[in-house]
Amino acid sequence: MNTPVPATSVHGYPHIGPRRELKRAVEGYWAGRTTAAELDAAAAALRRDAVAAMAAAGIAAVPSNTFTYYDQMLDTALLFGAVPERFRAAAAAASDRAGELDAYFAMARGSDAAPPLEMTKWFDTNYHYLVPEIGPATPLRLSGAKPVEEFEEARAQGVETRPVLIGPLTFLLLSKPDASAPEGFAPLDRLDELLPCYGELLERLHRAGAAAVRLDEPALAADRTPEELAALRRAYRYLGEREARPAITVSTYFGAIGAALPVLAAAPVEGVGLDFVAGPANRDALAAAGGLGGKVLEAGLVDGRNVWRTDLGGALAMAASLLGLAGGLTVSTSCSLQHVPLDLAAETGLDPRLRERLAFARQKLDELALIALGLAEGTEALGDRLAAGRPAGGAFTDHQVRARLDALGAGRPRADYAVRVRAQRQGGAGALPPLATTTIGSFPQTAEVRAARAGLRAGRLPREEYERLMRAEIDRVIALQEDIGLDVLVHGEPERNDMVQYFAEQLAGYAATEHGWVQSYGSRYVRPPILFGDVSRPAPMTVEWARYAQSRTAKPVKGMLTGPVTMLAWSFVRDDQPLAETARQVALALRDEVRDLEAAGIRHIQVDEPALRELLPLRRDEQPAYLAWAAEAFRLATSGVADTTTVHTHMCYSEFGEVIGAIGELDADVTSVEAARSRMELVADLRDVGYRREIGPGVYDIHSPRVPSEEEIEAALRRALAAVEPDRLWVNPDCGLKTRGYAEVEPALRNLVSAARRVRESLGS
Ligand SMILES: Nc1nc2c(c(=O)[nH]1)N[C@@H](CNc1ccc(C(=O)N[C@@H](CCC(=O)N[C@@H](CCC(=O)N[C@@H](CCC(=O)O)C(=O)O)C(=O)O)C(=O)O)cc1)CN2
Ligand code: MET
Ligand SMILES: [Zn+2]
């Protein structure tokens, strides 16, 4: 065959550096240790390395403008001048680079004067973006040059990049109306004013010499109304028909785009990007639509969100079947590689049988080149690389786990809540006041705690010494909670590096990485563990810590576990069996842990499911089946306890809309949820969907360093009491406290307890 080698492209590449250099630089700047110039220099070096890596791997369309100090949605809002009213004065007053950066970070993190932008999940990933606020009067004008500057910066390095922008439809659909917006207003109403800003930017990029740009419209992977599709048509007609512009590729990812496909196929643009990993249905839809005509199809064939090596044979077959459906084919990632770790070469401790099946961002660049080569020269050109890397089925099977699950089925359900609550509240140790106070689990992870763990890892600190330090930390956290007067205490989770990784490190079938960091939000990172085989629990995981904490107090201590859905959502999970099946294995391991905690005298057990919303399919018709298996896995994990044991769960990251009905299906006795930012409206929403158990709406936002006043917590509680009886209301922050410092946490919790007392007193109890 003599076809030219197809081009390759990447949606985005990790910019955090092999050792999280970006985190160090940004947090150093916040702490006043790093100057603005040093921060900018560190960032430029990281961009240079990423561009160089992609260019060296032969990627044709190297992306630029994918770097961010905090979040790309925030960057886009600033690019178009869409600064919320409360930040405008500070932004306008910025007179130097430091002032500019401070105004930027204030929007992300809040300031004394103004709360930050809301943060929420980026589609169904564990990345969080900042939600732009757009009202009828929000300014919209091209106000920055970041895409042009990053293009020119890479050109100076000798690489012609393709600037990437979040597309206008996705930008507006992911924004929320600002406080001034009248009922019925939607940010999308401002589309016609925003488009000229994009047009002007395209013209500037064109003048700077950019031959092509990519506009990302991941919002098309979710259900879209006819009006939204009409807006899509209008947007790309407007941009496509402008004269001075680079070639435009409209890229979509995270799933099949359904009815949007014919709209993009007909748009006056040069390329369309489709994800064939999360959206294999895109293939048939493309054929049914008659293909893309002369446009280039940018085919997402290499999974940007998981760590398994690409099945090159399968990718080549898919690519071959696409060749006739477009004017040209570019071999691409399915989405940005920001969701996977940078380089497998940094991992030295992995089982070789697992390692040979993995590809991180750096390795995926080579896979793209191989697929392009195979397309041009035939599969023979790939030799034995074609066969390498696919799971050797059955290598990690555990027949005992499978047999236990078969025997257990759905497990016996618990007694009705009405029966349980009587058993739980019967005097003695079970007695709790109305508006019982508690926290969500973690207390601040102090520098000493993290340093101790780093010492343990490096072999500097013996395990016994580490455990002694953790017990001392638990003593401190218990004593503090008693002093503050909380009702249900926690041990504070000092021994956990992360609420998912900690368990993964102790479960069979799971592997942890040493350096596999992925950005979760801002300067916060996680190392998602790799779930590669059947899961089981070789030994109890949390029981000794919980038992120890309970031995230090007469008050009840709440045991703390991470639920099955969250264990999957925040890991890289095997893709050779349905998630529902894997969830049942994790649930079984947790079920054993829950029962062991109970046997150790722990009367309250919390099983966190903060990611319940995150794994919800983007398409409505797929959601009920997901919610059914998710709730079943939770019940399997928690239904093995006596009526007298109180099962708690916790969820965060707002937008409960679609999952609100499922909260009751989990059958927990108490559910704590993030509600501070939505002013307790969730409590009434839960009542309206028939939720009749106990509820702990978060009364303050732990993502901000602000200390809430007693009055504001009291007001929140009174709003909640409009929709729930006092003995069903719990009082707690809206999430764990691990990212905060004691200087904020202690006064905040004191205010929380005194607010709860004041309300109790006013109720005469
Ligand atoms: N997996 C996961 N996803 C989640 C959440 C979560 O808690 N876990 N919460 C939500 C919000 N996301 C979050 C994500 C990360 C963090 C977070 O605090 N991350 C820490 C790292 C946590 C960790 O893994 N800590 C390790 C490693 C700590 C570390 O950096 N050690 C240094 C040395 C430390 C020292 O000497 O001080 C090193 O190894 O170089 C530990 O404690 O053992 C961070 O970025 O700083 C918080 C919230 C949604 N998604
Ligand atoms: C992201 S949800 C966090 C729940 C966990 N128990 C904590 O308090 O940190
Ligand atoms: Zn939480």
UniProtKB/TrEMBL annotation:
Record carries keyword Transferase: yes
Residues bound to L-methionine: I440, G441, S442, E493, D608
Cofactor binding comment, as recorded: Binds 2 Zn(2+) ions per subunit. Binds 1 zinc ion per subunit.
InterPro entries xrefs: Cbl-indep_Met_Synth_N, Cobalamin-indep_Met_synthase, Met_Synth_C/arc, UROD/MetE-like_sf
Highest taxon, organism lineage: Bacteria
Cofactor: Zn(2+)
Pathway, per record: Amino-acid biosynthesis; L-methionine biosynthesis via de novo pathway; L-methionine from L-homocysteine (MetE route): step 1/1
Catalytic activity: 5-methyltetrahydropteroyltri-L-glutamate + L-homocysteine = tetrahydropteroyltri-L-glutamate + L-methionine
Keywords: Amino-acid biosynthesis, Metal-binding, Methionine biosynthesis, Methyltransferase, Repeat, Transferase, Zinc
Domain (Cobalamin-independent methionine synthase MetE C-terminal/archaeal) ranges: 435-757
Residues given in the record as 5-methyltetrahydropteroyltri-L-glutamate binding sites: R20, E21, L22, K23, K121, N126, W570, E614
EC number(s) stated in the UniProt entry for this protein: 2.1.1.14
Catalytic residue list: H703 (proton donor)
Protein residues bound to L-homocysteine: I440, G441, S442, E493, D608
Location of the Cobalamin-independent methionine synthase MetE N-terminal domain: 8-322
CDD domains: CIMS_C_terminal_like, CIMS_N_terminal_like
PANTHER family assigned to the protein according to its UniProt record, in alphabetical order: 5-METHYLTETRAHYDROPTEROYLTRIGLUTAMATE--HOMOCYSTEINE METHYLTRANSFERASE
Protein name: 5-methyltetrahydropteroyltriglutamate--homocysteine methyltransferase
Lineage: Bacteria, Bacillati, Actinomycetota, Actinomycetes, Streptosporangiales
